[in-house]
Design a protein that fits this description.
Layout lengths: L13 E4 L11 E7 L4 E6 L4 E7 L2 E6 L8 E4 L3 E4 L4 E6 L4 E7 L5 E9 L9 E11 L5 E4 L6 E8 L1 E6 L2 E6 L2 E5 L8 E4 L4 E10 L10 E3 L2 H15 L5 H25 L10 H16 L7 H8 L3 H12 L3 H19 L4 H7 L5 H12 L3 H13 L1
Antiparallel strand pairs: 1-7, 2-9, 3-10, 4-7, 4-9, 5-6, 5-8, 11-18, 12-17, 13-16, 13-18, 14-15, 14-17, 16-19
Helix pairs in contact: 1-2
C-alpha cells in the first residue's frame, strides 16, 4: 500500500508499511543507526530488500538508482519504508537528530562515496503575509466610482459577482465574477474603483514580505476552484465578528497568496504566462487560446469557459486579442465558426438548422443574420449558389 502523501514516483524505489516488522518471526538483521546530518556524503545499498523504521525524530530519505547526485530524489518519511534490492539510500535529519532501524535478510551493506556532498534544495522563498491593516466586503448595491486613499501597501481585490473597474498605477483592469487582482504598493497614485450595481467584491490591504518582483502582482487571474474556495473562506472571516478574526484573516490570506503563486508556476510551466521576458510568452498564450478555439469550433464554447481554461481574466484576454489580432475574442470565435459553417454547407451533409446548432448558435435566425452580415449572402442563398454551380 502506497501512502498518497508520498510523491507518485516513490514506487520506483519501494513501498510503505504501517506495523513494525516482527524480527522474531523472520530471520532479519537489525542495524540501529543515528544521524543529525542535513546533507549526504555517501549512499548505502543492499542486494536484498531492506526495511527502514524511524524510531525517533523527523527524517527524509535520499534515494537513487545510481550514486549520482544529479539524479537523487528526496522523500519525507511518514511511515515505515520497504526498499527494493539495489536501491541507493541514506537519511537526512529534519529534526535535531534521527534514530532509525535498518532491517534486512543479510548485512552486506555497500557504501558508495559521492563526488560532492548532496544538499537538498530548500523550497523557493514565498511571499509572506505579515499584517492585515484593513479588510472589507462590499456587497451588491448602487453603482459608484471612487478614489481610494493613497497608501503604499499590498491590496487584494476579488470580485464575487458583477464587474469592477480598477485603475491602478499605469494599468486599468476590468474584473468580472471569479477574478482576482493583487495590487503592488504604489505611494504615488491612488487606486480608482468603479463598480456596477450588481458588483460584490472583497478588498484586503496588508503588509507582505516579497523579496522580488513576483509575476502574481498587478495581473488579473481567473480563479481555480481551490483559489475560489480559499477566497470564499476569507470573505466569511472578514464578515464574521470574532476575537480570532484577524488571525484567521492572515492565515486565509496567506493561503490565497500561496495558491496564486502555484497558479503562476503552473501557467509558466505551460508557457501561458508572460514572465517579463517580452512578448514571446504572451504570443504563446494566444497561440494556445486560438488552437483551443479552433479545435472546439463545433462545440458551444463561451469566452467565460476559455478564461477558466487558461486562468486569464476577461480583460486580459481582450487585451491580448486586441494587441495581436486587432479584434475581440468573441469576434474571433464568431469568425471561425462562420468560416466552419461554409465548410459544413459545402459538405452537403447537414441542414442549415443542424449547422447552426452544431456550431453553438442560439438560433437559426441569429446564425443566418451573422452569416449574411459576414459574407453578404444568406446561408440558404449560399447553398443554392453551390447547387447551381454543380449543375452547370
Amino acid at each position: 500500500m502506497i501512502d498518497t502523501i508520498i510523491r507518485d514516483n516513490f514506487p520506483e524505489f519501494g513501498s510503505v508499511y504501517y506495523q513494525p516488522v516482527d524480527i522474531e518471526a523472520q530471520p532479519l538483521y537489525r542495524l540501529r543507526l543515528l544521524t543529525h546530518a542535513r546533507s549526504v556524503r555517501e549512499l548505502f545499498r543492499l542486494p536484498c530488500e531492506a526495511c527502514i523504521e524511524v524510531t525517533s525524530g523527523i527524517a527524509a530519505i535520499v534515494l537513487g538508482m545510481e550514486p549520482d547526485t544529479e539524479h537523487l530524489q528526496v522523500f519525507p518519511i511518514h511511515q515505515h519504508l520497504r526498499l527494493k534490492p539495489g536501491v541507493y539510500f541514506n537519511l537526512i535529519a529534519l529534526s535535531d537528530r534521527v534514530a532509525y532501524d535498518l532491517l534486512a535478510p543479510e548485512s552486506r551493506l555497500v557504501r558508495a562515496q559521492l563526488t560532492a556532498p548532496f544538499v537538498p534544495q530548500p523550497a523557493p522563498e514565498q511571499p509572506q503575509v505579515t499584517k492585515v491593516l484593513d479588510s472589507c466586503y462590499i456587497d451588491a448595491g448602487s453603482a459608484h466610482c471612487f478614489q481610494k486613499a493613497l497608501h503604499s501597501y499590498y491590496e487584494l481585490l476579488y470580485v464575487s459577482s458583477g464587474t469592477l473597474q480598477v485603475a491602478h498605477a499605469a494599468a486599468t483592469f476590468s474584473l468580472t465574477s471569479g477574478e482576482v487582482l493583487l495590487c503592488s504598493p504604489d505611494s504615488e497614485r491612488a487606486k480608482l474603483l468603479a463598480k456596477n450595481a450588481d458588483c460584490a467584491y472583497l478588498s484586503v490591504i496588508f503588509e507582505m514580505q516579497c523579496t522580488a518582483s513576483h509575476e502574481l502582482l498587478d495581473r488579473a487571474f481567473f480563479c481555480t476552484n481551490g483559489l475560489r474556495e480559499a477566497l470564499q473562506k476569507l470573505i466569511e472571516d472578514c464578515t464574521t465578528p470574532s476575537p480570532y478574526a484577524n488571525t484567521l484573516i492572515v492565515c486565509r490570506l496567506q493561503e490565497v497568496v500561496v495558491r496564486l503563486v502555484q497558479l503562476c508556476d503552473r501557467l509558466r510551466s505551460e508557457g501561458m504566462l508572460d514572465a517579463g521576458v517580452g512578448m514571446n510568452c504572451q504570443n504563446e498564450l494566444l497561440q494556445h487560446v486560438v488552437h483551443y478555439m479552433n479545435a472546439r469550433v463545433t462545440e458551444p464554447i463561451s469566452i467565460e469557459e476559455i478564461c477558466r481554461k487558461f486562468f486569464i481574466s476577461r480583460s486580459s484576454l481582450q487585451a491580448l486579442f486586441k494587441l495581436y489580432l486587432h479584434t475581440s475574442p468573441k469576434s474571433y470565435l464568431i469568425d471561425i465558426k462562420l468560416q466552419k459553417s461554409k465548410d459544413l454547407i459545402l459538405e452537403n451533409q447537414y441542414t442549415i438548422s443542424q449547422i447552426a446548432d452544431m456550431l453553438g448558435f442560439s438560433s437559426i435566425h441569429y446564425f443566418s443574420r451573422l452569416f449574411k452580415k459576414h459574407f453578404d449572402v444568406s446561408p440558404s442563398q449560399y447553398t443554392k449558389t453551390l447547387a447551381d454551380s454543380e449543375n452547370t
